[in-house]
Amino acid sequence: MTVFNNLIAGEWVGGDATDNINPSDSDTVIGRYVRGSKADAKNAIAAAKAAFPAWSRSNPMARHAVLRKAADEITARKEELGHLLASEEGKTLAEGIGETVRAAQIFDFFAGEALRLAGEVLPSVRPGVTVEITREAVGVVGLITPWNFPIAIPAWKLAPALCYGNTVVIKPADLTPGCTWALVDILHRAGLPEGVLNLVMGRGSVVGETIVQSPDVDAISFTGSVGTGSKIAEASVRQMRKFQLEMGGKNPLVVLDDADLDVAVDCAVNGAFFSTGQRCTASSRLIVTDAIHDRFVAAVIARLGGLTVDNAVKDGTDIGPVVDQSQLDQDMEYIEVARGEGAKLAFGGERLNRETPGFYLQPALFTETTNAMRLNREEVFGPVAGVIRVKDYDEALSVANDTAFGLSAGICTASLKHACDFKRNSEAGMVMVNLPTAGVDFHVPFGGRKGSSYGAREQGRYAAEFYTTVKTAYQSAG
To answer: Is 280 a catalytic residue?
Structure first.
């Protein structure tokens, strides 16, 4: 069995390893991945700190070359890496390859950004004085990434961090270390100097906690749960460091009476159930007006009945397994909670058996739900959605905004008036019109409001707001 080590100061470092289990076939081990210790994390931070002065002042062409080379290799290996992703996370093979291509596009974008670093030169209000405004790297950046997008999210954190001259310590999710290991290996071989990029896999309570508590980490970018994000925020405030949090979502999809039914069903099924519903942008609250409600529910049930839940890499699979037993147990618990609250299970919600032993769950659609139910207040993070009946657009908007989260929101309508009003008044960081709530571009900002996000946006040119700091320099001509 291949053992995959941590990368610290340019060297692959071994240690105790744990199995990476395939959720489509729990008898299959993808590989053994080392779990780092506190000492490993501290050594990685020290290596990143030592490497920062040279890397932050490196020629932009050197950073461009590394990121460009990484993008090319990821593209060339998209089927292989997509298969790895599907095998360790449970997305379908098509989704895994698509996410891998997106990772390559992100590295390609930031390879270009390395050559587009710009500042401003302004005249001072004082005669004979010039003002220069520039951006500089922040320092040592800790990256803590989740299991549900195991190649795209590490990519959209790693690429800008390196582009702008920061050094990195990255800790991937314990459940899906394989894709991050592959990315780090690609970047390492692309020519990064030792210490610029360090990988320490392992438990959040050990590796993550060491990164969060270190006074030598200048910024932390985290994607994960609200509870962990709150702890990172508290620790970062004490350290007076920059921090960026992407956390939960309870995203609404509003369907109005005038919506194209086929479009609305496509948006709902894709947004709520594809990727096994394991997306922070998933539309788990389907808010539907009276006149279209019954037709919409019937059409969604018909569509769900035609979907195949099976092994993620098997031809014809539409929805793969849940990521692991713990997540499956959580999903099943929420299904029982919803039943206990009086919601009607209109479709699915059953544990499934397939040819290989895995964590298979039939998509669950609830009707007769209210926005006060736990089903519609808390993030389930699985293929479970509730339909909320409302009388009109005004009530739909009110219900959509009545949540502690604010990541993504969508509306299906033929009305330009309602579409424009929803874009303006939706309390979400991202708004979709006649599109699924899940599915975003790599070159524009990603992030939300309320309990979903904190700090600067991720992706696109807006990533510079987090990964750089602004310097204003004055110079006299005298």
So the answer is: yes
